[in-house]
Amino acid sequence: MSKKGLHVKIGELKSDLGLIKNLELSVGRIVEEKWAEPMGPTPFPSLTTLREWDMKLLQRYKPFYLPFCDVCCLCTFGKCDLTGGKRGACGIDMAAQQSRIVLLACCIGAATHTGHARHLVEHLIEKYGRRMPLDVGGLNIQVEAPVTRLVCGVKPETLGDLEDILDYVETQITHCLSVCHTGQEGNNLDFESKVFQVGMLDHVGMEVADIAQIAAYNFPKGDPDAPLVDLGYGTVNIEKPVILCIGHNVVPSVGIIDYMKENGLDGEIEVCGLCCTAHDITRYYNRGKIIGPISWQLRFIRSGVPDVVVLDEQCIRTDALYEAQRIKAPVIVASEKNCMGLPNRTNDPADAIVEDLVSGKALGALILDPEKVGEVAVKVALKVAPLRKKFKAIPEVDEVLQKAKECRQCGDCRRACPQDLHIPEAMKVAMEGSLAKLADLYDLCVGCGRCEEACPAGLQVHSFIVKAGEKKLKEETYKVRAGRGPIQDVEIRNVGSPIVLGEIPGVVAFVGCANYPNGGLEVAEMVREFASRRYIVVTSGCAAMTAGMYRNEEGKTPYEEFTGEFTAGGLVNVGSCVANAHIAGAAIKIANIFAKRNLRANYEEIADYILNRVGAVGVAWGAYSQKAASIAAGFWRLGVPVIVGPHGIKYRRMLLGRADREEDWYVYDARTGEKVYVGPAPEHLFYAAETKEEAMVMIAKLCMRPNDTTKGRAIKLTHYIDLHKRLYGTMPEDIHRFVRTVADIPVTMKDEIVKILEEKGWKETVIPDPTLLPRLIRKKKE
Amino acid sequence: MAAEPWQTAEIPGPKKASVITKPEVVVAMIKRAQHPVLVVGHKAAEIDFDGGKLVDFVIGFAKKSGIPVVATAHMIGEFTKRGFKPAAFMPAVDIGNRLVDPSWTGVDGKGQHDLALFVGLYYYMEWTILSGLKHFAKHLKTISLDNVYHPHASWSFPNLSHEEWVKNLKVILEKV
User: From the list A85, A94, A730, which residue is nearest B76 (CB)?
Assistant: First the structure.
């Protein structure tokens, strides 16, 4: 896609046709077409373009609202009591209010990724030029931006092309955000439709961000053999100066790595990261270290290991500056979005900033030039490390045992703990001289620090837990495959058929944050279970790290145990949060590359295809953020169900199907136009599971799709029934809803299932060419 | 009687659960209900109760009261192990979603329920589901049998010590 601005002004033109005076013609852009695929029906969709599709989904997957509180407090009329069907001063009811809050959360999430994308694109254009080609995988990846092609109907080829796409996304997010204003939208389903819109936009923003950085920084380009990189506290060489980068935007980290390399300091300093910046550091520099997910922030900073803390943007503890001060580590903030109250030193000489930070004259500095961040961070790390001597904020064992005696056993710590951890009991044991119970809490703690805020005696409860669990922390030495980015076209060709026919039982994506109900081990267990069952398992973000923090009986982490290919039994780490777009992209590419459906601006048809044929499920077991909400929303509109862990219920709204309402589960058979019952496949679109066991059973169930062949359905049913029997101790009671013909029945369970079908009065149905879109019916009913 | 939510920051709003000051209140509510249901979360298999687990109490209570039980998460296995067959098993969000639908025929096909008792879910899951029911299931009263205050229920115990809670539930079992 290349474009030019055009402005024509004609003062006076005489011709045979007549006289033209003062004609002025402006054209914002002329798109030079190189893409032969015809434009589809919905390029650059506005707020209502895809509303009908949304309503089809919302008709089947109705919202179940779970208000966090009874009131609305968004305007000065409020607070308004919305209990018992009351409407607020503006007229809004509780259903609309809840959907408004969901929309607000998704707008925040989408704006965050898109703001990140805009910063990256502008920075990379400044550095590499507008014409830099978007090579994200050479000949292996011809469909380089499937989400953007699908949504916008354009094919970006250069960094400069991404600017127009971001213009569209930003405009639409602004419109969606404006919908949240008092007195705009009043209907909950229309709010929900806009939630889907902003989720879809979020995936475009994420895709833009990731393909820009892959191309410009030469990250792994869809490489199944991307290097295995170090993961965990124990992988950091604490004898060296350590620079810790926290956040999501890798630009300042690149500045650090480049400076180090250019000055022969590669290997002299440890560069490590927390949260998604860590992923992207290792995509750029395979000697970088990933400490762990977002919840490791407090424990790692307080450990005293980092000599300099560099903050970019998103998911950073807002008290990171304070925590770094406690260990005498200078802080560099490198994003306009996260200035932390520090003076802007961007235009000061690097050495002057270094001097102030090393001497302690300044506790931190805002530096908005990533190259300068690199120089300052490296120089400060080298000078500060011998002075700090890894000064830490975690007390020694004796001090913990002594301080524990001050515990009043009031229970406020437990009542503040999101996990309801039995902290008072552990403190009581500590008072008696043992840290064993506190150590038990280490694996379950999400690292929020609310226990300390609540403690009336001012005890550093979280630090006590970390000290008690120190041995485990120091033994965290794992491997994770560096984020590979997109899925190759050839991989899609290879797996497209078995996925769509159901012979690969599903694609399960473990994504999102680290607000786990019972520690991260559950994620690793689920990953291993489904990869071993030869599902295609995909990971990203904090979940990708968590999945790696586990070893099997042979001492291998999941990334060492399973191949990095997008294939049955593969475990594919796509990368950081913004790389989530490649998961949606893979589903889209199945419809396009394998099924030859037109991709260009053809959203409804592709989403209909995915909903009915691609057995993909997202699992965000520790989802906490607004970004996670918008990422999920992008999957919903595309027809991909999302399971969240129990904390995810706090997103205030589920999208649940009703398996017991037969009328909800009819599709058109595109061959005949007949309406055919296909069972609740997939049963839910957004759903919070209470336990890991429940999630695992539901993952297997949600992978079923109306289009499954009999062989494919039998395979999927085998996994569903097997997991159900193992984890629930019983046969599922809804098998009759998923068996369409006798051939669907797994051979090894035939007698048992036939008996159940007879008891349920089951009747055979046909397997249609399923669609929810009447326009796709090839033969109209007479 | 005022009661504090178990999780300090979980402030609900103007409509808060009436506090169960004595266990007989629960018994009276159950007896008054036409079609109650008991929703049991996975923690019932983890929480100690009088030498056994909470699920053991639940089974005795369900048998004596005749209230149909819905097992959430993987609780069905725990019930089955103990030789008890719940009326249904389904995810917690599913039973919540069905309870808001006035046209749902209930776990036993006898019509929508008018009273739902909850026990053994994560506090925050029960909190949010009870809130959904408070706002969107006008036909339904809810009771939390947990030992912590659930302000979104119609009726809830205050935050109780384990011993007091066990004592209360035993009275309910005796009198139901």
Answer: A730
